[in-house]
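#struct-pred

JT: dropping the chains for the assembly here, can someone run the whole complex?
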Amino acid sequence: MKYIHIRSLKKYHPSYTDRKLKFAKIFFDMVQGDPDCEMITNEIDWSRLIRFILLELQAQKPIPLDRNYLEKKGFNLKKRPIELTIQMLQHFLEIVTEPLQNRYVEEEEEEEKDKEKEKSKIYVDWEQSTLNLWNSFCDKNLSLSKVKEITDTRRRQLKLRYTKDSFRNFATILKAIEQQPFLINGNPNNQQHKDWKVSFDWLIENDTNYIKVLEFRYKNKKQGDWKAADSDCQTCAGTGWDETDGVKKICHCRIIR
Ligand SMILES: [Zn+2]
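RK: done, full complex below.
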């Protein structure tokens, strides 16, 4: 079986995301200005061109070059043989065979893939910038732990959070953390909050933690009171920061007991 395919069919597509098309695009220069169109000297072929465009757009695949089908669609083939129309419309039509009949759908799928690629590039950039924001935040707030790499678990969680505008704007979350010192310093004097502070994993692990930060739920939580570092301290040698397990945290010598 052979099929009629309109070359550059997409030109006539109104670019609806919704695939149920209600109209097609027909251009003014098809009446005047397009040399190919001006060479169509037969009125029947003209109307057939428009109908081929509509039929193929609607079917989303090339239409059968079949007598019964065309007659059912109202083509009067006795009035003008289809072969002559195809000849006349050769700049617009292409006769394709069965294996090619999904060409139009394939083109759309190609486009869809490109869009996906573009989207994933935007995501990767966002992920990297989120990581950078967090790590430079840790440079300013030494009690917090930097993130070395985006593991698979982290990526899975980040992708979920990425769907939320409120999370995507990660800098706003960091600003809110800055205004709630408990999140940065925890409260080592309180058994329950001993050593607790905000971490990257805690922020991304669900849809509630970061929202609580944005809603300033930790604003009035008591944070630890700190003394000046003990200059004779064996853990920190007077710097006030304990780095013994590879993570900077406030040294025990600063905790008021
Ligand atoms: Zn110390």
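JT: nice. Residues 123 and 163 are 10 Å apart (CA to CA). The chain is about 45% helix and 5% strand.
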